[in-house]
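Ticket #4471: structure output looks truncated?

Reporter: J.K.
Steps to reproduce: submitted the chain below (256 residues) through the standard prediction queue, then opened the result file.
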Amino acid sequence: MSAYRTILFFGVFWGIMAHTMQAQSVLLVANQNPGSLNTSDQAIKSRLESMGLTVFITGGPGTVPSASDADGKSLVIISASVYSTSINSIFRDVDVPVICNEPWLFDDMKMTSYYENYHYGATSSRKRIRILNSTHPIAVPYNYYVDVLSYYQEIGWGYPHSTADLIASVEGGGYSIFVYEEGEMMKSLYAPAMRIGFFLGPNTAAYLNSTGWQIFENTVNYALSCTDVTDGGKIAGFESRCGGFNPAAIISGVVA
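Returned output as attached by the reporter:
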């Protein structure tokens, strides 16, 4: 390998590593500080870390969340442990994907209209959801009714605008998983980036079974857009935003 190609390789390599680390950072908005997360939020944090993601926490006592907290992150996850009146519309306009687990923020985020227990709410004592779109990447490989919890818990829901993709529903409520792609009209606001309504209540994640966790991981991966990007001017070998990396393709000197 020539000196020029060696320099090029290491420049590309570290550029990719920097991009990868940035692409793997998640902001978890919770109602506790990092050292005192409740069981459910700790389960979410641990799962994200097991997926290779770096997790930053905001929203606990003594902290004032800001939209700027999302800067440089690839994903924001808002836990249902937060007080909706404290978060309100802080993350409504951020230009990174948001997974919102708190139904009482759906209206503030313009993901639903504003009538509590009509346009959004939560249903208690549920273990299963109904998959409505089995071909969507979030739902694969599941169909029809699936148990997502090992114990009866609260499941959040909302009724989004007609532009949303409806992934799942819950008995006695509305849609437990729904997705707005970037640029789609929500409620009087075009989605600045992907917005996902997800069913996890304030204590629900602690009771997710293997199916529930798989759907959660599918949702995170979908929000992170884990698709092949080896074309379109990207560097061959950098397989996805979620960290797939093949240094052999870089060593070969292939640059798209």
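Triage note (M.O.): checked the attachment and the full token line is present. The two ends are 19 Å apart (CA to CA).
Status: closed, working as intended.
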